Amino acid sequence: MGAVKAGLSCGALIVGALMAGPLMAGAAGAQTSAAIAGAGCKLDADRASAAGPDCSQTWIDARLRINDLQAIGTHNSYKLAIPPQELAAHRAVDAAGADSLDYAHPPLFAQLEQGARTLELDVYYDPRGGRYAHPPGALRRGYGEAGPWSPAVAAEMTQPGFKVMHLADIDFRSQCMVFVQCLRQIRAWSQSHREHAPILILINAKDGRSGPGAVAPLPFDGAAFDALDGEIRSVFTAAELIVPDDVRGDAPSLREAVLAGRWPTLAQARGKVLFALDEDARKIGLYRGARRSLEGRAMFVNTDEQASDAAYLTLNDPIGQGVRIAKAVDAGFLVRTRADADTLEARRNDPRRREAAFASGAHYISTDYPQPDRRFSRYRVVFPRSEIARCNPRRQPERCNQRPVEALEKHD
Questions:
Q1: Residue 225 backbone phi and psi in degrees, to 5
Q2: Which end of the chain has fewer beta carbons closer than 10 Å to its terminal beta carbon, N or C?
Q3: What is the value of pTM for the model shown?
């Protein structure tokens, strides 16, 4: 397995600490301005290659911002496979639907270790605990008193707190059933890889209808979203998060800050995570409440480019929405798109959507295939030079002197 390596020079760490401002934390922040001069890098150069010998990474970290990168990650990152007998039962009633569910991912820490820099978690509201402990399964006959879980997971399912599942009735098996446990796994990996590129964690708030025999999911309301923010902040400290207030600063609105280029620099953002609520307008409105720019909230939201709290956009079709993605990237918004969906690209070995995603400039590209599923084809999603994170192809990539934002170091 590969080990992650950010590729920072000593100068980069010094400059990152000195230029970070309030977003940066840690011992490096105590360095003095004299250390910058000692690094000998020309940070006012117009490109990395002009910054001086061995200064490219230092320049990249000091001069580029989150919205100058491009990274790959996973869709429904928590998902385990549906057992063959159950998948066959579902296929008998919905063949296309069964095909779309026929994928799975390794544990979150393994995905991060392999280079995923965006993860997606689907959450169900369970304030009393136990609501989702007894799914019917695709065979629609349940699993007895113990449910489909191990004793340890069965105990977790009875506890209050958000649960992580794709479909609460038939596709409910997850690497981590409890939301805060997923977050703790991510944080533990992050704490041991402090120079990683910023990780985007996408959140879907699930409350749609379930199939026959399943309990109705609880609807999300303002209290549910307050609780969701609370669980995020119970795991990650303020110094480990990038939140809307950090970006807005003293600007009149979050949107105006984004258009003015106020995303944190890579030096400020390394080792941190940011959350985005990927939901419809109704749920975004509930999460927003009376706030104009998500004041005090832990997550950015998927909204349109004109909203006062516009900063992040989910635009999942890089072919049909390619022009809009490119315009949003050029304007300064952060964008997530998908390289594949419903297992179709893997089954057809079709790279067109993947290549459109790369070319669009979308900052975070989600896939179900960071590694190929050889049952279908050799289709996978990886950058041509195998970078974990690279300079964004729409935002003057030539400035980076062909250096990655984050590289993968492989060991025998």
A1: -70, -35
A2: C
A3: 0.92
